[in-house]
């Protein structure tokens, strides 16, 4: 996942300094059943690490993940609990075994969890799953290379659904696809959520993509959650300067009447994150307090159901400062 050409990552790989890298720190959220929470942020912000922690691919060094009230450590030990949560990966090219027919790829979790006895019944179920994701039951006889990128992601979704899960963790499931195909996959996922009552944790670097599918959106920066809000509230009234900067990067988002916030620079190295607020080296609103004190995630005054980690928002100086910048 990480871009190994990055100088800071090369230093980590070389073991320089042997310091602890906190990929994720202090992130806390709940996802009500049948809803979608999306996590967004630039590459390296920790969102994919959260996804892997949530499905138990990584173990947290501190803190807990609860799934339906059960600690994930215990849940992973129970086959029926593992069946209830599945993951869809970014790259449908890499996540499907090229030597297996599609029917065997989709049937594998059914066999692994012992869900359906008998070959004929399993094949009927595979046919149903293929129809559910918009493919033909006859496609089960083909191999992955015979499909387009969008079709392969449909096969990945069918495989994830084959264990009758209730919770899907989707790690950038559309980022390897063309824009028009992305929209088709997002529509399919929304439709499946409605029909099957699924709950999603959706990971993306693209705010425009998650807008379509999310009930709530969390924005991450350098391993921390900096803003969490209902999707429409986030687009109508983004509060954190970093969220505002991400909005600016959406080409066709109507910014009429909104104050723009230019943000330059690169995401700092997580090996030696900046003091205080980790966003301060890039933030036009930073002051001395920001350099010294890390802001807590607290309710944003004036924006219901939004929590934000920013001293400027807490002090009520975010709006005034934007006006000043725009007038320059
Ligand atoms: Fe900017 Fe300070 Fe808010 Fe951090 S706490 S985002 S540096 S204003």
Automatic annotation (TrEMBL):
The keyword Protein biosynthesis does not apply. Residues 1-247 form the ABC transporter domain. The keyword Transport applies. It comes from the Bacteria. It is a peripheral membrane protein. It is found in: Cell inner membrane. Keywords: ATP-binding, Nucleotide-binding, Transport. GO terms for molecular function: ATP binding. It holds the Pfam family oligo_HPY. Belongs to the ABC transporter superfamily. This is ATP-binding cassette domain-containing protein.
């Amino acid at each position: 996942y990480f871009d190994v050409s990055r100088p800071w990552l090369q230093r980590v790989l070389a073991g320089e300094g042997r310091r602890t890298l906190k990929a994720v720190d202090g992130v806390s959220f709940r996802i009500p059943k049948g809803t979608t929470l999306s996590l967004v942020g630039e590459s390296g912000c920790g969102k994919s690490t959260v996804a892997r922690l949530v499905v138990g691919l990584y173990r947290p060094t501190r803190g807990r993940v609860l799934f339906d009230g059960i600690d994930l450590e215990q849940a992973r030990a129970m086959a029926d609990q593992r069946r209830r949560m599945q993951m869809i990966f970014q790259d449908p090219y890499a996540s499907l075994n090229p030597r297996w027919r599609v029917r065997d790829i989709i049937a594998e979790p059914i066999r692994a969890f012992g869900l359906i006895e008998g070959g004929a019944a399993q094949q009927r179920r595979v046919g149903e799953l293929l129809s559910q994701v918009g493919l033909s039951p006859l496609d089960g006889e083909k191999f992955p290379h015979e499909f387009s990128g969008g079709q392969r992601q449909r096969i990945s979704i069918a495989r994830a659904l084959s264990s009758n899960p209730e919770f899907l963790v989707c790690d950038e499931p559309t980022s390897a696809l063309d824009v028009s195909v992305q929209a088709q996959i997002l529509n399919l996922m929304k439709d499946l959520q409605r029909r099957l009552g699924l709950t999603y944790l959706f990971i993306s670097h693209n705010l425009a993509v998650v807008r379509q599918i999310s009930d709530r959106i969390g924005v991450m920066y350098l391993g921390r959650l900096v803003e969490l809000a209902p999707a429409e509230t986030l687009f109508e009234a983004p509060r954190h300067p970093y969220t505002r900067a991400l909005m600016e990067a959406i080409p066709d988002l109507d910014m009429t009447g909104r104050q723009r916030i230019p943000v330059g620079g690169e995401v700092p190295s997580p090996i030696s994150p900046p003091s205080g607020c980790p966003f301060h080296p890039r933030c036009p609103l930073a002051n001395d307090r920001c350099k010294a004190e890390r802001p807590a995630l607290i309710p944003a005054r004036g924006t219901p159901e939004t929590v934000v980690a920013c001293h400027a928002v807490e002090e009520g100086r975010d709006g005034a400062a934007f006006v000043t910048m725009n007038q320059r």
